[in-house]
Amino acid sequence: MASPTDVRKGKVLNYQGTPHLVLDVLHRTQGRQAGFMQVTMRNLSSGSSTNTKIRTTDSVEILHTDNRKLEYSYKDSEGYHFIDPETYEDTLLNEALIEDAIDFLVENAAYSILFVDEVPISLELPASVEMKVIESPEGIRGDTASNVQKPATLETGLIIQVPLFIKEGEIIKVSTSDRAYMSRA
User: Fold this and answer.
1) Virtual CA dihedral for 105, 80, 46, 175, nearest 10 degrees?
2) For residue 73, what are the domain limits?
3) CA 97, CA 80: separation in Å to the nearest integer?
4) Per the confidence metrics, is the pTM higher than 0.90?
5) 162, 152 in Cβ contact below 8 A?
6) 140 in a domain, yes or no?
7) Domain end residue (candidates: 91, 106, 124)
8) Does some domain include residue 60?
9) Measured distance CA(131)–CA(94) in Å, rounded
10) How far apart are CA 75 and CA 92, in angstroms?
11) pLDDT digits over 133-184, tens only?
């Protein structure tokens, strides 16, 4: 157990039996009373945010965390398999854990996975991912008004809007935050 004054942004706490990532910490004091920590944290299981007060006289449990870069390998009936490129150890993640990232999982690409006490908790996407265009209709000749776009299906099944000059088989960069075309790779 640790003191609440040891709580810092980026640490993972065991709060009400589930791991919570600390987003913001503010130490406050009120006159003659004992101080407290105003802590904003996100539940790593559900994704919801919580704002709570922890007295400096209480004790908190700071969990051991580890961020590892693992390569996405394949998907089967058990889940999504990630391989450590150094030890070749296979890590299995279930669909519920990475449901927001499924459209951006490209084989052999590296992703950062947060482990809490040797158990994978969350997958962090990079700012952009390079993906191959599988299907995209040809642009219509003469349709050259500014910023005209067409739909394109990418290798993961994600459909986004791309400029008319993008053709099938090209590799493009896609923003993971807003699912938008960024540039050719």
Assistant:
1) 0
2) 65-124
3) 10
4) no
5) yes
6) yes
7) 124
8) no
9) 23
10) 9
11) 999 888 766 666 677 888 999 999 999 999 888 899 999 999 998 999 999 8
**Domain assignment present for 95:** yes
Name residue 36's beta-bridge partners.
Answer: 28, 55
**119 and 86 within one domain:** yes
The total of structural domains in the chain comes to 3
Sole residue written with tokens 């349709």: 143
Contacts of 24 (CB under 8 A, 6+ apart): 9, 39, 40
Strands 110-116 and 149-154: unpaired
Instruction: Give dist(CA 154, CA 100) in Å, integer.
Output: 16
